[in-house]
Specification:
single chain; elongated; Arc Repressor Mutant, subunit A; binds adenosine-5'-triphosphate; alpha/beta; 5-stranded parallel β-sheet; binds magnesium ion; 3 domains; Rossmann fold
């Protein structure tokens, strides 16, 4: 629909016969003069000599622009303006005022006139205002078209995806955003769970209230409790001041619990209580605090298995699993890859100030063929690396990470450096391999892996994600 209108306006210069203008003016010479100037320019013009006739014409057919005198016998221009805007709000109204009628002109603008012309005015002044309206209308319609395109949903709240699975997810997000229910977002690492949580909050009635996030896997149990519920002064060693927790700070808004499957059992019980009666106490306190918070959750774990293993409360599961959303891994929706590649390419070109970078078909083939154990995040990092490394205008397969470009897949960076890699690339490949090896040696225990590497669990977590490595097999 919008496209048709845009064609009409964007081609305005070439095919102005399509633009229809109604002139309402009682003074014959003025009326004819206006009609003549506009017709000469190719606009299709109709005229009326009083307000009643003007409105009758306007009701009978649609006009893109109405040019009306503010002073007419038996009616005034403001009334005509109001009726016009009532019947067709998108029509541009230009009013003609006498030299001394500044006040009325201002009133007309307030009522929605596009502009005014003070008598006497030249043909050029008239045409400039008309063209300015058409340009303005063109831009406005372009915006409508863009919005409609977004309606086709290749992009939705910064989430890219044309696969049927993603389309369904976009629809689900819109529906659940309007409710206050808990939403549980499942999906492997890097599938976009946090993006979905952001989208839900941004589309919800709580969008202007706080949106807080907490990663239950990255914070030790004791700290997690005070992070969530706050603590009183002296509640434990180091609690020098009273501190508000996330629940208090998010009042009226939303909290996103990332990696909820990793929340310790004792805290699960406390969380359940807040969800049920909206009250809690700060650590070390006994004042009951009541809050209104909506909660969203994400986990890479299979919670049913966690329940079986005795690590997750069944009652909490049923409380949280009201509206589940499952993000499929990227390898199961490969049709999304080219769009994601373009999306990330744009982002990193903007960040690095590079322009006109293109992905060669050969590089795109490799990108499309790869299985992405780290999902969209791994693809994102691959493109970031390619944009950084690429020296010319073309991203070739050699700019892609080893595992994606494939040719040197069996090369062991630990035993011999690779001469076609830059220093940064070699160091990164080495670090990645070292982490993978250590993780295997410790059977995926995160504490032990971090200890052997001499880094904190948080840093380990960040690095794993940074390399697009799956964190799913990590145990404490
Ligand atoms: N469909 C998508 N469109 C655009 N960007 C995406 C999409 N999916 C993921 N990303 C990007 O990939 C990265 C990882 O996404 P996100 O953090 O939401 O994943 P996640 O599922 O929460 O991962 P994890 O379980 O590791 O926390 C982000 O930078 C995000 O912007
Ligand atoms: Mg996440």
């Amino acid at each position: 629909m919008a496209q048709k209108l845009i064609n009409k306006f964007s081609k305005a210069k070439g095919h102005m016969d399509k633009i229809k203008i109604l002139v309402i003016e009682d003074e014959p010479s003025m009326r004819l003069g206006l009609a003549h100037s506009l017709t000469t320019k190719g606009y299709k013009v109709k005229t009326a000599e009083n307000g009643a006739e003007g409105i009758r014409l306007f009701e009978g057919e649609s006009f893109d622009i109405v040019i009306t005198d503010l002073r007419l016998p038996n009616s005034n221009g403001i009334e005509i303006l109001k009726s016009t805007k009532n019947i067709s709000p998108e029509t541009g109204v230009i009013v003609i005022t006498a030299f001394a009628e500044v006040k009325t002109a201002v009133q007309a603008m307030k009522e929605g006139a596009f502009d005014y012309l003070s008598k006497p005015f030249t043909t050029d002044e008239l045409l400039i205002v008309v063209e300015r309206f058409l340009r303005y209308r063109g831009i406005e319609l372009e915006n409508i078209r863009l919005k409609e395109e977004i309606g086709e949903r290749k992009h939705f709240q910064h989430i890219v995806g044309i696969s049927p699975a993603m389309q369904t997810i976009f629809e689900t997000i819109e529906v659940v955003a309007k409710t206050d229910s808990s939403v549980m977002i499942y999906g492997e690492s890097g599938t976009g769970k946090e993006l979905v949580a952001n989208a839900i909050h941004n589309l919800s009635p709580r969008r202007d209230k706080p949106f807080l996030k907490i990663n239950c896997a990255a914070i030790p149990e004791t700290l997690l409790e005070s992070e969530l519920f706050g603590h009183e002064k002296g509640a434990f060693t180091g609690a020098i001041h009273r501190r508000k927790g996330k629940f208090e700070m998010a009042h009226g808004g939303t909290i996103f619990f990332d990696e909820i499957g990793d929340m310790p059992l004792t805290l699960q019980a406390k969380l359940l209580r807040v969800l049920e009666d909206h009250t809690f106490e700060r650590v070390g306190g006994n004042e009951a605090i009541t809050v209104d918070v909506r909660t969203l959750y994400a986990t890479r774990r299979n919670l049913k298995e966690e329940i079986k293993a005795g690590r997750f409360r069944e009652d909490l599961y049923y409380r949280l699993n009201v509206l589940p959303i499952t993000l499929p891994p990227l390898r199961e929706r490969k049709e999304d890859i080219p769009m994601l590649v373009e999306h990330f390419l744009k982002i990193f070109c903007r960040k690095t100030g590079k322009t006109n970078l293109v992905i060669t078909p050969a590089a795109m083939d490799r990108l499309a063929a790869y299985d992405y154990p780290g999902n969209a995040r791994e693809l994102e990092h691959a493109i970031e690396m390619a944009v950084t490394l690429c020296k010319g205008q073309r991203i070739e397969p050699c700019c892609l990470p080893l595992e994606i470009r494939g040719t040197k897949g069996d090369h062991d960076i630990m035993t011999s450096p690779c001469d076609d890699l830059s220093l940064t690339e070699s160091v990164k490949a080495f670090e990645k391999k070292l982490i993978t090896n250590t993780r295997e040696e410790t059977s995926g225990r995160k504490k032990e892996t971090a200890r052997r590497l001499g880094i904190s669990r948080k840093v380990l977590w960040r690095k794993l994600k940074g390399y697009g490595l799956s964190v799913s097999e990590l145990e404490d």
